Structure formats: C-alpha cells, structure tokens
Amino acid sequence: MKTFTTTLASGEEIQYVDRKRWFWILSVLFPLQPLFGIWMHARTGDEVWLFFVLLMSYVVAPALDMVLGEDRNNPPEELAMQLDQDVYYRRLTYAVVPMHFIAFFVSAWYAGTQDLSTIGFLGLAMVAGLIAGLAINTGHELGHKNSKLEKALSKLVLTLPAYGHYSIVHNRDHHSTVSTPEDCASARMGENIYQFALREIPGAFIRGWSLEKERLNNRGKPVWHPDNNILQSYALSLGIAALLIYLFGWSMLVFLFVHHLFAYWQLTSANYIEHYGLLRRKNENGKYERCEPHHSWNSNHVFSNLVLFHLERHSDHHTHPRRRYQSLRHFENLPQLPNGYFGVYLLAYVPWLWFKVMDKRLLALPHVQGDLDEINICPRARGAMFLQYGRDKMVEPTIRDLKTL
Questions:
Q1: How many separate domains does the chain show?
Q2: DSSP letters of 99-131?
Q3: Is 397 domain-assigned?
Q4: Is residue 20 part of a domain?
Q5: Which of 118, 217, 304, 326 has its CA 20 to 30 A from that of 10?
Q6: Out of 206-220, 240-254, 257-271, 374-388, which region has the weakest mean confidence (pLDDT)?
Q7: What distance lies between CA 190 and its chain's CA centroid?
C-alpha cells in the first residue's frame, strides 16, 4: 500500500495511507453491471436477470452502506497535493469511459438482436439508462479538471445519455448559484422529486443553451456555429443513434428514448438530494455568501462512495470544485444523509416519507435551528411550511402563499 509522506516546517513528519486505494477500481467496474444480467439471461432465458442493475443499486448498495457504515477518515491537508498528483487515481477516471461505452453498446446490441418480450426490452433499456446516469457522474468528475484530455473525455462520455449541455450548465451556473432560488438544480423544501424534475431537466437545458449562446456572442459568433459545444456533443449523440438504427433497426428509437429518460432521471435523483432546502444568504451588497460545506448534503457511506468516485462527499466538492475525488474531506456538523445515494433515492421516490425524514433533519441543522428564513422553500409550499413549522420564526406568508394550501 502506497504511503504519502511530507515533513512540516517544524520537522514533524506526516504520513498517510489511502486504505481505499485499490477499492476505487469499483467505480470503474460498476458500470459493467448490465453485462452480468445479459450473460445470465443468455444462460437461463429468465428475463428477470436483465433487471440485475435494480437489485444491485436499490437493494444491495443500500444494504452494504448500512452494514459497512461510514468512513469519516480524511487525508491530511498537507498531503492533498501529493494525492492529486498521483496518476493512478486519474487513470481510473480515464479507464471508466470505455466501460460506459461497452455497457451501452452491448445492451443495445442485445436488445436489438434477441427475442425479448416488451418488458424485457424496455427493462434492458431502463437499466442501461441508469448506468448512463453514472456516465454523467464520470463526465462530472472529468469536466471539473483543467486538462484538455479530461475535458475531451467528459464531452465524449456525455454523448451516451445525450446530455451535452451538462458541463456548461453545471460548471458555469450550478456552482455559482447552488443552494439559491435561482438554481434549477437545487431542490427546495416542500418540493417533491417529481415537481423538481419538471423544473430541473428543462431548466438545465435552457440555461446551458443560454450560457453557450452568450459565450459565442461574446466572440462574435452566432449560436448555430460549429464551435457550439452543445451542438458538438449532440452531433455525436445523433451519430450514435444513427449507427444503432442502422445496425439493429428502428426499435432503437424506443431503446434510446427509454435509455435517455432514465439517465436523466438518475442525474435528477442526485441533484434533488444534494442540496434539498439548503440556502445561501444574500449579503448587504445583494450577492450570495460564498458556498460553504454546510450548503450541500453529505454522505460518508463506504460502498456507494467507492462506486461513485466519492461523489457523496459533496460538501467539500462544492467548496473546492477542482479537488480530485481521492482528496475530498469530511467535515463535522454537516448536513448528513441517512444512507448512501442509492438508498436515499428510494426515500425521495416516496415524497411523504422523504418529507417526514428530511424536513426534520433540515430544520435541526446547526445553522438553521428551526428558522425557516434560513431554508430555500418552494414558493408553492411556503404557506404550508409556515403553518406546520414556523409560526414564530418566519415572516407570515402572503395571501398569494396561502392560496397554495
């Protein structure tokens, strides 16, 4: 096991061993789950195996997170640079890109060439789409880095779910407006995940297109220009779609529609839980305060972090967006999720249960302490939130607010 070492000015030597070093390979292998389901279906003929990804994601992963618990260990800040410069970790993010393409094309090939029932065909498209949602996470990790190679790989992997606007809206808008009412990717208290999806998915595209148009106009170019990064990505996605239709027929249109829908849903699920109800306050000059660790929900659960390149240490990521996954840190007294992402997704899919569990956690946060003025509240739910939680701590809702009750 590799040991990182440095000597402080005082002469004290600091050492650190990343005991998860080899386990990060799970993030590379996790996207290949559909292949196991396909192999088992080929052996047994039982289409239940095509849904293997659902078993792993929504039963096994939450169970392992409960059993293995949390890892709150942090690398010393003095060694963060050494960790970032270790090419082993970087190569894992490179290696996962072809894994996504393999999973995608094998799934499409199997769906297009085998005599599957309608449920089997749609199920395979669905689970392949959920895995493509992980491709967006890969694009997220790579897209935050400055190297041309990593940015190119990010753009490439985002062609699979046809989500080419992601890096633009995420890096240039979400990180500046996160945990504010202006951010379409920050969920509000009282807003269920289905309402959020209707706001977030189209909102991300509209905002991304607007930002890219602004960038091109500033360079004296029209929006429909070959330098449009969104159009470049969508052109590749269209080429992939054309190839699948040519090889496997028009049924691929249905496959791709379902695939992309569930890829978007996977991202929306993550966005929903990552900043639910959290609010950055405006300063006297009208600008929002700097994003701090308590403006994101965090999770230290071991298994799901190992298969998601530490995405769940989201608090440190938003505080230091370019910090690589192996160096992300845990902070005390942060908003904490009750399970890893996969388990919390299930909670979010049942709105009344989500509100029952998470609203209490939100109100109990040290920087909130029951004060609804410290929470990003859905305008339609503001009156209801006042009546339920905040008669003594929030400005009374307007008549317009009360009409939503």
A1: 1
A2: HHHHHHHHHHHHHHHS---HHHHHHHHHHHHHH
A3: no
A4: yes
A5: 326
A6: 374-388
A7: 21
